[in-house]
Amino acid sequence: MSQASPAPRPPVSENLLRRMDAWWRAANYLSVGQIYLLANPLLREPLQLAHVKPRLLGHWGTTPGLNFLYTHLNRIINERDLELLFLAGPGHGGPAVVANTWLEGTYSETWPNVPQDEEGMAALFKQFSFPGGIPSHVAPQTPGSIHEGGELGYALSHAYGAAFDNPDLIVACVIGDGEAETGPLATAWHSNKFLNPVTDGAVLPILHLNGYKIAGPTVLARIGDDELASLMRGYGYEPVFVEGDDPAVMHALMASAFDQVFDDIRRIQRAAREEGETARPRWPMIVLRTPKGWTGPKTVDGLKTEGSWRSHQVPFGNMDNPEHLALLESWMRSYRPEELFDAHGRLLPEIAALSPHGERRMSANPHSNGGGRVRELRVPPFERHAVDVPAPGLVNAEATRVMGAFLREVMRVNLPSRNFRIFGPDETASNRWSDVFELTSRTWLAQMLPEDVQLARDGRVMEILSEHTCQGWLEGYLLTGRHGFMSCYEAFIHIIDSMFNQHAKWLKVIREIPWRRPLPSLNYLLTSHVWRQDHNGFSHQDPGFIDYAVNKKADTVRVYLPPDANTLLVVTDHVMRTWNRINIIVAGKQPQAQWLDMEAAIRHCAHGIGIWRWASNDEGGEPDVVMACAGDVPTLETIAAVDLLRTWLPDLKVRVVNVVDLMTLEPADRHPHGLSDADFNSLFTTNRPVIFAHHSYPTLIHKLTYKRANHANIHVHGFIEEGTTTTPFDMTVLNRLDRYHLCEAVIDHVEGLSQRAAHVRQTLHDKLAEHRRYVDTYGDDMPEIRNWRWSGGRGDAQPEHG
C-alpha cells in the first residue's frame, strides 16, 4: 500500500549503523539507570538492593523510542550540517533527553557536578526524580529544551512557534500517541497552514505510536495505517511510516526515512525560496511504530510487559523480590555497557564521535535558550499616541483602539528584524487592534478567495480560533527569544489556564538556573470584558483569570487595570520592555470617559497606585471615606459616585484612590511591586472605611490586603456572578458595582452618616427603581447615565426628596 514503510535499503554504511546502535544502547542504559539506580552505575559488582533507589519514579515506555529518534537525528545533523531543535512531546520522556545530552557533553557543561565519567554517571542516576534533583519530564534544567513535557498537548504548537521567523531552523517534534488525543494537539496539526517556507523554518512532526497510554490503548494506534494516513493527509502532511521491533532492521528503515523527509523539506524550501513556488506545500511527517518499553523486559511475573501498558512507567518495582533484582541486572547488562563505556565510565571515542559539535548539538542549540542572545524589542515613543484630555471625563475614547495604533508602530520599527508578532483567536479587529492591518495582514497559506481581506502569506498577525494554539505559538516564539502580544476575550482566556500555569512554572525555574537566558515577557490584553457584554450575556461574563493568575510566584506575574487610554499606553510600553514575566492587562474596547492627560498618566503608572487629587476633597486632613477603584468600569462608577456624594453630601471628605498595578496592594515583603505598610496606610488610612470598586471578584482584593491594618474596613464591590444580556449600566447594578450602590455603601459604613443621610438613601433607592423601569421599557440606559460627565460636585445633580 502507498503508505508502507520505506524499503529496507540502508542509506548509510553498516559500520555507521552499528555505531548508531551502540549510541542508542548507551542512551537506553543511562535511561534505565536513571529510573532505578542509586549506586554501582557501571555494574562493576553484582547488583544489590542497596544499589537501587528506595522510591522508583519515572517512565520507561516512551523512552527507548525517543532515544532511537535522537540518535538518528544526530546523524542527519552531521551529514547535512543542519540547525535542529528537538521537542519531546511525550510527557515523561525525561530519561531519554537527559541521557542524550549527557552523552553529547552538554549536560556536563551546564551542570559541572555531573561530569562525563563514572562519578558523573552515578550523579546523573541519583538526581533523577530524587529530592533536590531533577523532574522526570524534559524540564528547564535539561539543556536544549523549550518544552516542559509534564502536561500533554502543546508540543506541536510550541514547535511551530519556534519555527516562525527562523528560516534556518528545523524543529523535530515528537508527539506521543497519548498526547495526540488531546484537543490542543489536534488543532495544532493545522499550524502548517501558517508556516511560510520562504521566511520560516520547518517543523517535522514525528508521531510516535507505541500503542498505550497509562493503562489503555491509544486511538491513533488502533485505527490502522490506511485510516491514519488519510487523517494525516487530510491535515496536509505526507506521512512516512516506519514500523517494527527488530533493531537492526529499524535502524536501516529510520535512516532511509529521515533521508527522504529531510530531502523533501529541502525541496520544499528550495522551491519556495529560489523558484518562487507559492502553492501551500504538503510537508512531510513520520509515523513511528515501536513497542512500548522497546528493548525492556518481555515479561514480568509471567505477564507481557514490552509492547503493553505495563511498561508505561516502571516496568517492575518490587525490588525486595530477588527475581526482580536479578531481572533488572539482566536487563541493564543486555545493553552490554562494557562495549559502550571505558574503564573511567566515559563513552568510547568511536561512539562519542557520533555527536554533533558545538551549537550543532540539539542540546546546545541557541534557539533553545532564549535565541542565544538578548533580542531587544524596539519600542517607539508611545506619547505620540496620547489622547488629548483637557479635563477629567470630558472626552471619550476607545482605549484598546489607541493601543492598537501604538502596536502598529511597534510592528513597523521591528519589521526589519522580524522578531515581533501579534497572536489571537480571530479577535484582532474585534479587540480594536485594526490599525495593525494598515501595515501587515493575517498570516494565511490556505486557500484564498477574491473577497478575502487582510490575508497574506507573509502576514504577521497570527489568528486561529483556538486559544490553545495561539498560546502555544506565542510561547514557542518567546522561548526562542522573540517578542509578541496576545489579545483575547476575557471570559475565554480561561481556556489556556493550564498552559499559562506551565509557562509561569517554566519562568519561575529558569530564574534559578544560571545558564538560562532571560526570555521576553508573555503579554496579554484581555478585553471584551465582563462589564461590557451587552449582546453576549452571561456566557461571556467572567473576570476570574486574574484571580487565578495572582496565585503564581510574585516575581513572575503582573496584573494591570488601566482606567483609560493614556494609562493603557504607558502600561503597554512598560510590559514590552520586561523579561521573564507574564503581564496581564485588562482594558475595555468601548468608548469610555478619559481621565488623565499623558503626563498625569505617566506619573500615576510610575507608582501603580495613587490618590486622584482632582476627584478628592480631603486634602489637608483625614478623609471620612476612601473610594478606591481598580479597572475602567469600576473607575467610572466610582468617579460618578463621588460626583453624587460631593453634590448631595458636600461636607463629606472623600479620597479617591485608583489602582493600576493590582500587585501594589500586596505587602512589600510578598511582592516586588507591593506597598510598604506605611505607604498603604497613608493611602487607605488605618481606621476609615474603604469602599473598593474592583474589576473582578471581591475576594481577590481581600486576599491581597488581608494582612493590612485596615483590612476590616475594606468593603469590596465586584463581580458576584450576576449577569445577563443587558445594558452596560444594568450589568453594574446587578453586581452592586454601580454608582448608586457605592454611594449607599458609603452611607452604611461612614460612622454617623446613616441617620443624617436618610433622604439621600431614599433618592438612591428611587434612582435604582427608575433605572429598572427604564431599562425594562426602552432596552437602554437612562440619558443621565449615558450622558453623564464629571462635574466635580458643582451641584449638577440634586437629590429628589420624598
TrEMBL record:
CDD domains: TPP_PK. Its EC number is 4.1.2.-. Its cofactor is thiamine diphosphate. InterPro entries: Phosphoketolase (IPR023962), THDP-binding (IPR029061), Transketo_C/PFOR_II (IPR009014), Xul5P/Fru6P_PKetolase (IPR005593), Xul5P/Fru6P_PKetolase_C (IPR018969), Xul5P/Fru6P_PKetolase_CS (IPR019790), Xul5P/Fru6P_PKetolase_N (IPR018970), Xul5P/Fru6P_PKetolase_ThDP_BS (IPR019789). Keywords: Lyase, Thiamine pyrophosphate. The keyword Phosphoprotein does not apply. Residues 589-790 form the Xylulose 5-phosphate/Fructose 6-phosphate phosphoketolase C-terminal domain. One of its GO terms (biological process) is carbohydrate metabolic process. The keyword ATP-binding does not apply. It holds the Pfam family XFP_N. Residues 12-371 form the Xylulose 5-phosphate/Fructose 6-phosphate phosphoketolase N-terminal domain. It is an enzyme of class 4 (lyase). GO terms for molecular function: aldehyde-lyase activity. Belongs to the XFP family. HAMAP family: Phosphoketolase. This is Probable phosphoketolase. It comes from Paraburkholderia dinghuensis. The lineage of its organism: Bacteria, Pseudomonadati, Pseudomonadota, Betaproteobacteria, Burkholderiales.
